[in-house]
Design brief:
Layout lengths: L1 H8 L5 H19 L12 H6 L2 H20 L1 H9 L3 H12 L7 H23 L3 H26 L1 H4 E2 L5 E2 L6 H21 L4 H18 L2 H17 L9 H24 L5 H11 L9 H14 L22
Antiparallel strand pairs: 1-2
């Protein structure tokens, strides 16, 4: 009797609410990846990025409104989830909002913080559903694949939009830039692997999904996404094995990597009587992905960013107030 009461005390989403949450996950992916306002005009400046368009506000405002309604209908469960939340995550959320006080663009920081809070509300809604991990996995994966298919046809049928000729003919498809297409493809490859481990999946379907996502990843020419795909896939399959899924598994992996690095440094020192430079370390890895030792100028960018970090090393500049495109505070970078 006590078990039945306890089961009744836990509110679950109604079928209608579950369908709304699924739709919100799909729209979250679409709004996050497709250009602002679902517009493929790439001539805009930072004004749209900082102020946002009416279409964008209606898109995300609708998601956040439905999230708030669902959370209010299951308020007690939501409060229980918040009590179990990582306290450091709560501190980060508070910092994002409070940083609007000293931000050089307080309105922008406040808006970005509100957006972040809205995404947390959406995550809490997903957590109310039955088997939230599988729901999130399936609807993220299917939506990402739909965007990749759309990007494929846009690159073929409308190359003036789908291909960035200024970057050597790299595909960007329906997205704003090639790196975003690479990120979407990389995420899809990883999610296909997770799905195959979470449920029974036909080999033909799995191979087709991964192969198509890999094609889009290669056509995007995003070397960062390629390397991240390789690294995350290796880490995922290492950590899911039972022999490593045990106490101190991360410690073992960390020690193993350290041992390999130390042996390589020792061998280099024995032959050269000195420690390797950054160029000697990064060049072999960078050349695999068609880059040079400065990672296509990224090391210069890091030096400039570090100069800015030193000015605001304690409290930060302000959440979301720096990387806003042309004519913004990051212009000098």
């Amino acid at each position: 009797m006590q078990n039945s009461k306890a089961a009744l005390a836990i509110p679950t989403l109604s079928p209608l609410e579950t369908r709304i949450v699924k739709l919100m996950v799909v729209l979250f992916v679409v709004f996050s990846l497709l250009p602002y306002g679902i517009s493929w005009d790439y001539r805009g400046t930072s004004d749209l990025t900082m102020e946002g368009s009416l279409t964008t506000k209606l898109q995300w405002g609708g998601l956040f409104l439905f999230s708030a309604i669902i959370l209010f209908r299951h308020l007690q469960t939501v409060l229980d989830d918040l009590r179990a939340m990582n306290p450091f995550l709560i501190l980060i959320l508070l910092w994002c909002l409070i940083s609007s006080i000293w931000s050089p663009l307080p309105a922008v920081t406040f808006k970005r913080a509100v957006q972040l809070y809205g995404l947390v509300m959406l995550a809490l809604c997903v957590n109310l559903a039955q088997n939230p991990l599988r729901l999130l996995l399936n609807y993220l994966l299917y939506t990402l694949n739909a965007i990749l298919v759309l990007s494929f046809f846009m690159a073929i049928a409308i190359p003036s939009i789908g291909i960035d000729y200024e970057l050597g003919g790299a595909w960007r498809g329906a997205l704003s830039q090639k790196n975003e297409l690479g990120q979407a493809a990389a995420m899809a490859i990883l999610l296909w692997q997770v799905k195959a481990c979470d449920e029974k999946l036909g080999l033909k379907m799995l191979f087709a999904g991964i192969a198509f996502s890999a094609l889009m990843l290669v056509m995007s020419r995003s070397s960062t996404s390629m390397s991240i795909t390789l690294i995350t896939s290796i880490i995922f399959h290492l950590l899911r094995k039972r022999r490593l899924n045990s106490p101190y598994s991360m410690t073992r992996i960390f020690l193993a990597i350290n041992c390999v690095v130390l042996v390589m440094l020792f061998v280099f020192f024995m032959y050269e009587s000195r420690m390797p430079t950054w160029s000697e370390i990064s060049s072999p890895v960078a050349h695999i992905f068609g880059k040079n030792s400065d990672l296509t100028g990224r090391t210069d960018i890091w030096e400039l960013v570090w100069m800015e970090v030193q000015k605001h090393w304690l409290f930060g500049l302000g959440y979301g107030a720096f990387w806003l495109g042309p004519d913004s505070l990051s212009q000098f970078v």
